[in-house]
Amino acid sequence: MQLLRRVWAPSAAAGCVLLLLLLHGHVLREGQLPTGSCEIVTLDRDSSQPKRTIARQTARCACRKGQIAGTTRAQPACVDVHIVWTRRWCEMTPCLDQEGCDLLVNQSGWTCTQPGGRVKTTTVS
């Protein structure tokens, strides 16, 4: 019986330590984004005005050095920081492939124009 206790106690302790390490690693990874990726945290739409929808979204990004949260192909993405500093928004390719990108006159954002003439305006705040 004592031999069984001597064998069981260390292996049980080792099993508990292994379980704690696995749980600790899982808790650390929980909520972390892979480097270079983004996710939408909040998205609010207001369609109270006719023919106009105002959408506000907040994204969380884990960007590499020299990058910052931006928009690529109508999705949150990490983009080169110089694009934001120089306010050359169309350089980050914010519109979908079939859309044309134009800077707003005051460089506070951009418009994406679809082939049918529909215009989506994005302002940066």
Question: How would you describe the overall organization of this protein?
Answer:
There is one protein chain. This protein is α+β, with helices and mostly antiparallel strands and 125 residues long. 27% of the residues lie in helices and 36% in strands. The protein has 2 helices and 7 strands. The protein has helices spanning 2-29, 81-86; strands spanning 37-46, 54-62, 67-72, 75-80, 100-103, 109-113, 119-123. The strands form 3 sheets. A 3-stranded antiparallel beta sheet has the order 5-6-7, with no helix packed on it. Strands 1-2 form a two-stranded antiparallel sheet. The longest helix is centred in the N-terminal third of the chain and has 28 residues, at 2-29. It is globular. It starts with a helix and ends with a strand.
Kindly summarize this structure in a few lines.
The protein is built from two helices and seven strands, in the order αββββαβββ. With 125 residues, the protein is an alpha+beta fold. The protein starts with a helix and ends with a strand.
Strand content: 35-45%
- Nearest-integer average pLDDT: 79
Order of helical and strand elements: HEEEEHEEE
Which range best describes the helical content: under 10%, 10-25%, 25-40%, 40-55%, 55-70% or over 70%? 25-40%
Q: How would you sum up the global shape? A: globular
Strands, count = 7
Structural class, from helix and strand content? alpha+beta
Largest sheet: 3 strands, antiparallel
Q: Give the N-to-C terminal Cα separation.
A: 71 Å
Strand order of the largest sheet: 5-6-7
With helices defined by DSSP (H or I, 4 residues minimum), what is the helix count?
A: 2
Whole-number radius of gyration? 25 Å
pLDDT below 50 for ≥5 consecutive residues: which ranges? 3-28
